[in-house]
Amino acid sequence: MIRLALLGTGNVGQAVIARLEALDDPGLCLVHISNTRVTVGPSLRESAPHVVLDATASDAVAARHADWLARGWHVVTANKLGRGASLARAEAIENACHASGARYGDAATVGAGLPLLRSLRALQVGGDAIHGVAGVLSGSLAWLLARFDGSVPFSTLVREARAAGYTEPDPRIDLSGEDVRRKLLILARAAGVPLEADAVQVESLVPQALAQADDIDAALDALDAPMHARLDAVREGRLHFVARWRDGIARVGLETLAPNDPLAAGSGTDNRVAIHSARYAHQPLVIQGPGAGAEVTAAAMLDDVFALRDQPTFAGTRSSKNVAIGIGRAIA
Ligand SMILES: NC(=O)C1=CN([C@@H]2O[C@H](COP(=O)(O)OP(=O)(O)OC[C@H]3O[C@@H](n4cnc5c(N)ncnc54)[C@H](OP(=O)(O)O)[C@@H]3O)[C@@H](O)[C@H]2O)C=CC1
Ligand SMILES: N[C@@H](CC=O)C(=O)O
């Protein structure tokens, strides 16, 4: 029996609860659910989970990952602020895993669970050397830029992307390139490169009026004129928000790509990532698929839980009281 604690009951957290309900797996038991307002079940410490599921966007929660791992609790996260924030925090997570044997499931943090991190790690286990990564890493920006033809204000599209659950809780995290920076850091670090967060050059799409706004929704209109100007300046191809890391240089920002560029394929929230390595020296390995959405993200988190099942920690553990999933649903 694996005891799970779920932090965060928003888009992703609710999808985790719904998936647990649908799977109805007797080997999984939800012993704690919490958001910033409500806790269901005993406190996190008292519930002594085997696995903490982080479905928040909270820096304070991510700052605790290393402590939980050091305690022997596995951590499965959609929150990128563990391995995608400061290098010191990413290294603390690494060290805690080595010291305690606990595992860190981060598949959901890049590409909403596409087999990106898994492939990067498997290539290296097989003796490959990763030379660089280039990609469209934001599902929301991919979705927005695919739709943006000037007929509808960019701000209207941002509101739609937010309502569909593709953006971060604060969409400025996507629009500023910060979400993509975090993903590029996670990928580069998974490729063995100790990249500092401020080593990534980031082009932000957020005008000052939006950056400083308290009422984010009202201030989204400030995007419309500058984004229209960017669109008008495109002569051939289409705008894409691209991340690149190679030869010590890492940058994220808008680029105009020709339709036959490998990074320009796909539709909707599709992410596309090209991995350049010793094995894939002439043609990169390209991985593509939906890169945002609560359901795929929740599925990736639970895949990471299932991957833990062979861990000795769970052998012989007693069954625990399952926190009512219906209550978890009710505290959204
Ligand atoms: N949406 C997507 O497509 C994807 C999202 N992710 C990541 O998933 C995470 C969640 O995203 P999403 O569900 O859209 O966000 P939401 O804003 O919908 O939900 C966030 C949840 O976290 C809770 N929370 C915040 N701080 C804490 C805390 N200290 N302790 C417990 N709960 C807390 C919030 O509680 P309250 O309601 O009380 O404020 C809320 O329930 C983010 O890190 C995001 O980057 C990753 C891949 C894809
Ligand atoms: N806001 C993110 C969601 C997944 O990480 C994105 O747009 O890609």
Could you give a quick summary of the protein structure above?
Keywords: Amino-acid biosynthesis, Methionine biosynthesis, NADP, Oxidoreductase, Threonine biosynthesis. Helix content is 37%, strand content 20%. By secondary structure, the chain is α/β, with parallel strands linked by helices.
Structural classification: alpha/beta
* Name of the CATH homologous superfamily of the largest domain: Dihydrodipicolinate Reductase, domain 2
Please give the CATH architecture of the largest domain. 2-Layer Sandwich
Sheet having the most strands: 6 strands, mixed
- Using the coordinates above, name the CATH class of the largest domain: Alpha Beta
- Radius of gyration, CA atoms, in whole angstroms: 20 Å
Question: Which kinds of small molecule does this entry bind, naming each only once?
Answer: NADPH dihydro-nicotinamide-adenine-dinucleotide phosphate, ligand LTNE7NMQ
What is the CATH third-level topology name of the largest domain?
Answer: Dihydrodipicolinate Reductase, domain 2
Enzyme class: oxidoreductase
Binding site for L-homoserine: 168
Family: Belongs to the homoserine dehydrogenase family.
Keywords: Amino-acid biosynthesis, Methionine biosynthesis, NADP, Oxidoreductase, Threonine biosynthesis
